[in-house]
Request: fold
Amino acid sequence: MKDKLTHQESLSLITEMITQAKRNVAKGGSNQILLWGWTVAFANFGHYALALSGIPHPYMIWLITIPAAIISVVMGMKIGQKGAVGHIDRVYGRVWMAAGISMVICLAMMHTINFNHNGVILLIAGMGMFITGSLLKFTPIVAGSFVLWIAALISFNLPEIQQYPLSGVAILLGYLIPGYLLKRAERG
Amino acid sequence: MDNFEPLDPLLHSQLRLAVMSLLISLEDAEFTFIKEKTQATAGNLSVQLDKLEQAGYISISKSFKGKRPLTTCKITTTGIKAFEAYVTALKKYLP
Reply:
């Protein structure tokens, strides 16, 4: 590398390095979306199916979120091992950490909120998707947040048991489809 | 006529400017990442990182990843201000 630069070379170098840095950040987010999308969709449909079949304690299917959380943490650590952490990576991680904590509190208080936890969780997931989509400037993710919010609105007007298949469908349409579109965009 | 401010000599060098341009876009970056992106030799990169650290433009932390030593660099507030001043001054030189 040479020591003296022309002004134009300086500008080109700055642009090139910022592009190089951008190329390495904010990738791999789709895998987290797909992991949680499939886990939550499976748990929602599973809860509904178990409840309809008269199997006791259908909510036990939500224990599937424990291995999902472990896989999610391992995946997050792998993203951190790519040699650099971007500003978006950090905000992105914080947003979903905040969303996760809010969801756990909501689930813990489901009795107090009259078992309307599904609607609240859809609201929180919608907010996370909206912020993520805006940070990534990826419209399908932003669109997904509106699907989740509309589902939340409907959910608040349904009996608890019917909220589960609704949440499952909302996750498929508003979370998983945008997640797959993001994965395709990351590859491209 | 615009005043042509002198460009910061510490930043007006290809490798140091490349490092600062990378770090301004990131929270932090490992030595190996910077080496790969700048295509510099390890020796030269170490020397230039030391110069940037001595000027207070970056902070360098050393730790271990498993058994391997890990060097992580992060731009400081002073470094951000210096980089912004460099870009502002550079704009005046460009047509």
